[in-house]
Write a structure and sequence with these properties.
The chain is of the alpha+beta class. It is 62% helix and 13% strand. The chain is built from 18 helices and 8 strands. A hairpin with an 8-residue loop joins strand 7 and strand 8.
Length: 495
């Protein structure tokens, strides 16, 4: 992708890397942290020098001239090498997915800039020490300057690492969006320990080494302690904020998950322990979403009550005896319909009918056990027990008879003891009810298709129903149903 300047000219690669985020901000914090560190260390060494005012002025003049020369040289070299290193980020400007090598190199940029900063400080410390020794400084004073510069370099490099990492957080999020990466950064413990050590530990070490430099006064130690207080506070603030902000996003996401919101996606912007935690939360949410989908599909196949019971109690083959009412519904003339009407039209009619069946049976506290082609078996009293299941079954039958659909159907209702449970094998089973009331309801459905009201119920269901329900039914024939040893007294809906 071509990037253009305001005048329409195409940006060169180096212009793009230092003029556009994230390369520009990275070079900015790299330069600012090292300049600030150089000023503070040089000022400290000048303020704590045990020399006359004229000597201090001369040393400062020589020191600042040497500092400016060295900084110009190292700054130019650092800019050239840094811009080349930022070639790692070309995939950002080109709006493409990074390669594995680019991903690893991008995640290692904070480490690289911190090492580059430390090398520059080490070179400067050696150069200033040699210059001081040539200038005739006491060996103890040269050692003091070298140690002070190196300790300042350590602190500055650590601050550079934390600031570059913070600037690159949005870029890290792009790198880690596809998949987690191996740990390429400091862990939480190491990060906080480094911040304390280089922010406060280094100045404290300087104070502890004061007996080696007897010329240091109480004011020197006070200045060193003040530097430790300020730099330690700054370092700990940057390090702790980099941890707390990420943990805050994770805590917020967990709160949403606890509230039932699974539309959560934590931005993974770190390749360390916290990044693994962020990626772990996202993986957990994906698993919960999949489980929710499976539970939803499971509930649609077997019914909410059966699904809830399976999730709460587990599943096992076998069943228990339950007192239920069975309602069987079967479409009339289904063979003729299949032969004379398009299959898609018949399926659409069946889905329309069964949608109403599921709604009405559910509103009455029942459960659709299964759909058998153009028939449906509905159960009241299992898996959840219902005290008034005969009344509910009869009322559901009445409501279904009033349904207006393009299909004609018969309904049979019966009540009694059945075995309700999981039937099948360990690898494939279904929750269902088996018993004489189910068979009787199916046979009554066959007979109901010859009746004007298209609904027949066994008298034992009618007798157990509430008196208020009786007014809707009237006695019908006693039928010898196929496969049953005894005739079955029945009732049917009043005209």
């Amino acid at each position: 992708m071509r990037l253009l300047r305001r005048d329409g000219a195409e940006l060169r690669p180096w212009q793009r890397r230092i003029g556009e985020p994230p390369g520009g901000p990275v070079m900015g914090v790299f330069a600012v942290s090292n300049i600030a560190g150089s000023v503070i260390v040089n000022a400290y060494l000048g303020m704590t020098a045990q020399e006359s005012v004229a000597d201090i002025q001369e040393d400062l003049l020589h020191g600042w001239v040497l500092l400016a020369s060295y900084f110009a040289l190292v700054g130019y070299a650092g800019a050239v090498v840094g811009v080349r290193r930022l070639a790692t980020l070309d995939w950002v400007y080109e709006r493409r997915t990074p390669s594995d090598a680019e991903r690893r190199a991008t995640l290692r940029l904070p480490r690289w800039f911190a090492i580059a900063s430390m090398l520059a400080w080490a070179g400067g410390s050696v150069l200033f020490s040699i210059a001081g020794w040539i200038d005739g400084d006491d060996l103890r004073h040269v050692a003091r300057s070298f140690v002070g510069s190196m300790l300042g370099g350590l602190t500055t490099s650590a601050m550079c690492y934390l600031l570059v990492e913070r600037v690159l957080r949005p870029t890290f999020a792009l790198v880690l969006a596809e998949r987690p990466a191996p740990i390429e950064t400091l862990g939480v413990r190491a990060r906080l320990a480094l911040a304390w050590w280089l922010g406060s530990g280094v100045p404290l070490l300087g104070i502890a080494l004061s007996p080696l430099f007897p010329e240091q006064t109480a004011s020197d130690l006070a200045i060193l302690g003040g530097i430790g207080l300020v730099s330690g506070t700054a370092m700990i603030a940057v390090a702790s904020q980099s941890v707390s902000e990420r943990l805050g996003s994770v805590r917020h996401a967990l709160g949403r998950i606890q509230a039932g919101d699974l539309a959560v996606d934590v931005e993974v912007d770190e390749a360390g322990e916290i990044g693994q935690l962020q990626a772990g939360v996202n993986a957990m949410v994906r698993g919960l979403r999949e489980r929710q989908v499976i539970a939803d599909l499971f509930g649609r196949h077997v019914g909410d009550e059966v699904a809830r019971q399976a999730l709460d109690e587990g599943v096992h083959l076998g069943g228990e005896q339950r007192d239920v009412s069975a309602l069987f519904l079967d479409v009339t003339g289904s063979t003729w319909l299949a032969a004379t009407r398009p299959a898609t039209e018949v399926v659409a009619w069946l889905n329309e009918l069964f949608t109403i069946v599921v709604r009405i049976v559910g509103e009455e506290g029942g459960w659709v056990d299964k759909f058998e082609g153009d028939a449906a078996l509905c159960v009241f009293g299992a898996p959840a027990p219902l005290r008034d299941h005969p009344t509910r079954a009869l009322r559901a039958a009445r409501r279904l008879r009033d349904v207006v659909v393009p299909l004609d159907f018969g309904i049979g209702v019966s009540s009694g003891l059945v075995v309700a449970g999981n039937i099948g094998s360990e690898t494939r089973f279904e929750y269902t009810v088996i018993g004489d009331p189910v068979n009787e309801a199916a046979r009554l459905t066959e007979a109901s298709k010859q009746r004007p009201g298209r609904v027949l119920a066994a008298c034992r269901t009618f007798d157990r129903a509430d008196v208020a329900e009786h007014v809707h039914w009237t006695m019908a024939d006693t039928l010898a149903l196929r496969g049953r040893p005894e005739p079955t007294p029945t009732v049917e809906l009043r005209a």
